[in-house]
Design brief:
Layout (H helix, E strand, L loop, with lengths): L7 H4 L6 E3 L7 E4 L5 E4 L9 E2 H14 L13 H8 E6 L6 E5 L2
Parallel strand pairs: 1-5
Antiparallel strand pairs: 2-3, 3-4, 5-6
Amino acid sequence: MLGGSGCPSQRHPLSGLLVCGGCDLRLHPIVAVDGRRCYRSPCGCRLCPVDAVTVERLTCTALERRGLVPADGVPEPNWPDLFARTLAAVRVGALPDELTFVWRT
């Protein structure tokens, strides 16, 4: 999926789009102690960070299902722009794979 190099927005292409499904506060990008890329909620609704690879993979799958540009054909540095252009928000539920996509119209 995503490589380990690049600026934080490239390493966390959903930054600014992920929101807590419980309280609607935005999740913030972090790097976990073990080096994994994650998103963390400042609200305390969720105790564990959300794995970035999981939510990014599911978001790419959702884009492909809608017939949008396949993620494999878009260079990694352009992923933040692609996500921001097509999504208004991604609500993260209780589990990291419980996502609700709010599409731009």
